[in-house]
Amino acid sequence: MDTLVHGLIGTALCSRTGLPGGRRGPLDAHGPRRWWADWTLWAAFGFGILPDALSLGIYFLSDLLMGRSLTWQGIPPWVFFLYNTTHSLLGMALILGLLAWRFPALRLPLLAWPLHVLMDVPTHGESVWGTPLLWPFSSWTFSGWNWWLHKEIFIGSWLLAGALWLAVALLRLTGRKS
Prior knowledge:
Blueprint: H1 3-14, E1 27-28, E2 31-32, H2 39-65, H3 77-86, H4 89-102, H5 107-110, H6 112-123, H7 151-175
Antiparallel strand pairs: 1-2
């Protein structure tokens, strides 16, 4: 799926500003706070895009900073290593487990990372961008549908993100006191 959609869906499902905030949303000692002041929203967005940002994002950023044109050809092996690590259950479990243990307040936003990977499983085919859930023990990937070849998946993912945030807005409207 589109990396930005991963971030938007991750924030809708894994932040206090999103659906987990219920009818009241993010709160502090003084009551409700503005969405942009909710650190869980930004953390969930970051963890939602992290698997792609730590692999392809680093690669494309380095190309951009070196003045090279962005291309999908000739991607170096280290990018695939990082992609496999951030999209595998083992890599995810190790990193998320350490972060959740060390920073308990991150537990909700951290869930945006496995959500990203679970969304990738059916929306990435058996190409080099398949989701290697069992890596490094196996390179098996689910034979899904490449979202970049199917516009209905691309459009559907954006509609899903919009519907989730519409649900958040409606939940908050029904939760307001008159």
